[in-house]
Amino acid sequence: MIRWRLRNKLILLMGGLVVGLLLVTLLLVDLWATRQAHRTVINDLRSTQMVFEQFQRARFERLLSIARILGREYALRTAVATYDPATVLSAGKNFQARAKSDLFLVTDETGKVLARTDRPRLEGVAEDLSSLPAIQQALDDKESTHLWRVQDKVYQVVSVPLKAGTDLLGTLSLGFELNDAVAAELKAMTRSEITFLVGGRVVASTWTEAARQDLLRQASRLSGQWSTREAAELLYPLVELPILGESYLSLVGPLQGLGVKGMGFKILQRSLDEALAFLRSLRRAMVAVGGLVVAVALVSSFLIARGVTAPVQQLVQGTQAVAEGNYQYRISLASRDELGVLARSYNTMAQALQEHTEALKAAYADLQQKTQALESTLRKVELLEQVKGHLSKFVPESVRRIIERAPTAPDLEKQEKDVSTLFLDVQGYTRLSERMSREQMNELLERYFSSFLDDIYQHNGDINETAGDGLMIIFQHDDPIQHAVDAVKTALAIRYKVDKLNAQLQGPYEPMVVNIGINSGVAAVGSTRFQGLTGTRWTFTASGPVTNLAARLGGLATNGRVLLGPETANRVKGYFALKSVGEVELKNVQEPTLVYEVLTDAASDEA
What we know:
By secondary structure, the chain is of the alpha+beta class. Among the domains are: about 1-50 and about 275-320, no CATH class; about 190-275, PAS domain (Beta-Lactamase, 2-Layer Sandwich), CATH 3.30.450.20; about 415-600, Nucleotide cyclase, GGDEF domain (Alpha-Beta Plaits, 2-Layer Sandwich). The chain has 16 helices and 18 strands. The protein has helices at about 1-70, 75-80, 85-100, 135-140, 180-190, 210-230, 270-275, 280-325, 340-390, 395-405, 430-435, 440-450, 455-460, 480-505, 545-555, 565-570; strands at about 105-110, 115, 145-150, 155-165, 165-175, 195-200, 200-205, 240-245, 245-255, 265-270, 415-425, 460-465, 470-475, 515-530, 535-545, 560-565, 575-585, 595-600. Helix 1 crosses helix 8, helix 2 (about 75-80) runs antiparallel to helix 3 (about 85-100) and helix 8 (about 280-325) crosses helix 9. The chain is flat, with a radius of gyration of 50 Å.
């Protein structure tokens, strides 16, 4: 009962739709065919426009190539260098014949005509073309392309400079005429009628003389609009123009390069009447076909409706199965019509969904494993970063710089380098440590040492070793004087910070006295390895007599003095006020050493 009603509804629906669609189709096809004919003509005109532009560019490029070659011709440059019009004209005619150009014009370096082949040169009159944009650009050592209007003719012209070495001899201009032959050549390529209007005259066209006059009358009526709006904005208006009783769709565009807007136009035309001629035959054919289609549609709708309901029911069951997540349900339908295609498409879709679901489950499991592995790796990286952060506190800055430059193979072997070494010693450390608790003493040292840590790094110092009450600081620089100056500046900054802290801590703590010794010279800078059964211990330091002498000077200094070795004093004597202490015999130093004391940071004579 239900299927019968569905079948009848389908017959009525399909029959009504076919009739209605046929009527609408007839109307739409007629409208579409009309518009398509217009569109085809418009596209043909646009293509003609593109062909013309490409044709124009090709001619300009050919002219430029010829002009460049002629510009390098020794004979032409020699003739121009004479500045004799007859000589230049004779050479110009020969070269014009070789170039096969319609225009050959040469000027001197001021823009005055020496020779031209399009018309005789005015005798006794130096024709000045320097005001023309093309000639101006050539005189400025630039190439240019333009359209020239010469009397009743229009030429495509290129202008190039003529030079002898770096000297400008003049300019060379070559041109091809835009004439009826060019228009005919373009028509052969595009099957469009082509006309060039310049100054209200037809300079070239594919039309007969009668058609030209008719077109000229139409153009005279519309040229004011083209000049004031479309040409000024470089637009291409489409207009219908009747030519000798036949309607033509016309594409109008400016001839660019003439130098004056609205002076010239190109008109590209295709016949609308010819394009629409096929519509009459099409309308008769569509009416005949429409009647046949209605008859066939009524019979077909009955047969289709009868066979549609059973496959549709299978499709309904299949979609319900997919909605419930059962992707294994398949439809058995062997027909080759749209329903058969739909059934096979459904089976393909269900198979793909089943495979994709299984693939997604496998991918999800794999993603979980990779996520867990990535989380484990990230935890290890975080742990390594923490270890790196802790270890970096115990690594000298110079070592870190070496490792950053070459992380995979750092060069830590000892090398001889010119350095300045500063030894800092806390005077009376043993006495202070006996009077104070370990925590207090450690807190006091950290406070003092922290106060001048920034000064050490600001002056390129590297804290190499610490030993309870003392520091060893190494200064390096490409300039040996600079690292010696940096070391002394650091020493004075330390002394200033110590005095400042002593004033702040006066009362609770005894004043702290810091003695400093500095020496400069070549030392062995690098790593030292100590190997034992329990492993290897690395240190990075500077060793040698220079370092030893700096340590002795630090031990010799008292009452907060800064003592310098002779080499350091020699390097910084122009920067600081120094006082000679005299020669002093130091432990483990073979010869007496001339020692200096730093007084201030202002240069003065040696005491």
